[in-house]
Specification:
The structure is a single chain. The strands form four sheets. Strands 1, 2, 5, 6, 7, 8, 15 and 16 form an eight-stranded mixed sheet that branches. A four-stranded antiparallel sheet has the order 14-9-17-18. Strand 17 (505-509) and strand 18 (515-519) form a beta hairpin. The chain is globular, with a radius of gyration of 22 Å. It starts with a strand and ends in a 9-residue tail after the last strand. The chain has 15 helices and 18 strands. It has 528 residues and is an alpha+beta fold. The longest helix has 25 residues, at 359-383.
Amino acid sequence: MGETLELTADVLVVGGGPAATWAALDAARAGADVVLADKGYCGTSGATAAGGTGVWYVQPDPVAREAAMASREGLGGHLADRGWMARVLDRTYANINELAETGGYPFPTAPDGRQPRNGLQGPEYMRRMRIRTRRAGVRILDHSPVTELLTAADGSVAGAAGHRRQAGHPYRVRAGAVVLATGGCAFLSGALGTDTDTGDGALYAAEVGAELSGMEFSNAYGIAPEHTSVTKTAFYSFATFHREDGSVLEGAASQGGRSVIARELLDAKVYCTLDRADPAARQAMRLAQPNFFLTFDRLGIDPFTQRFAITLLAEGTVRGTGGIRIADADCRTTVPGLYAAGDAATREEICGGFTGGGSHNAAWAMSSGSWAGTGAARYALGLGRAARTRPVRAAGGAGLRPTGGGGADHREVIAAVQGEVLPYDKNYLRHGDTLTASLRVLDDTWRQLRAGLRGEGRDTIRTRQAAALAANARWMYRSALARTESRGMARRLDFPDQDPAQHHRIATGGLDEVWTRPVKEPAVKEPV
């Protein structure tokens, strides 16, 4: 292992997707010296770069904006915040227009001459965001996953350490502030673009004392053709679902139909055909999401006329809403010097307890990224250049610095966690008894990895990912047990009704001992 690369910056951004690049771009525009460290190659890694996405882009018309905000409130259990919704709609509208007018993104032109700007092709979007970020002077460290945060003597976050995969040596960045934009956690389920989404940012945040929120809203599963990875669920609104004998699977195409599919898949196969799409819709679907059809084209299947087997792939907090708790309008966390954006942060502010899907999550990524980058720059520049030279200590624990003897294998840890969070009857079809049984396994797995899992060099990346998966699973299930009702996507078979007394969010945190508590979120305040 080579010598440690030592760097300094005003702001360190961890991640490489839309939230990270918007954060880096706006931190640089605010006058900060910025370093961005990505686990993969910035602009190609992550869920957005792997496909297309809708965007919650709404014209600034009061009627249209009111309809946009009202459309998800009930689905999300009325846990969203109108102030945050309005801010995200405003910021998304501005950022998308900027992307079109100065960022060079080639939005298509409709026959009437207008440009519909409510969708983005991920590869082109992220290619341009990388270019814009580099032109702003941001130093990008590709293939350089962060493995832990650094803290100053007062407990504030003061940088991060990691490992450069291709160069084969560790690195450390001292910074005035850090933005975590590392994505959510999909538990290595195989869903397209989510192999980098292992919940690392949530683990690092918790290790320095940050809180999480909405982790019970984490049982998102996407529909995909069997043995494939593309989970573009929106198109299945045009589907008819069948059992193996060809009979229609009643209720599968309705709102909440995913539960019907999950139950059937426990014992048999489920098939579908996108036969409810008319010719105009079929053409539009191919233009909007060409990668959705690549699998079918390679297999020689016409999904509009031929039936094909489907499966459900866990997407966890990537399409759920849980994540690091946001403490103010600039996306700061509950720890000084630490900011969060995109899927690494909770999206309850705009989605409540219902999935942000593609469009809302895409809007949140660019909006929260911009706010976090600007907020981090303001904080770091306020500290002055002395922040780069202050004494720091490493904050990482599980998977890095074991507390006891004995050995643990990261592959065994990952398998144990996946055994509790991937099966439909444990995670999607939740019941208190099942959650409790899974937590016993997960808590025991955590104790073993905490005592004996250690990584060095390149192996540190794998051991820390394993620890992050275990931590996220425990926060998810503790929060799910604490919500003794069904609200949003947090459904409980043993508590099928919504309880008005539980109209609150649930914060969680802790590592060896996981805690939960109800939180009434205050109305959003604009930054000074």
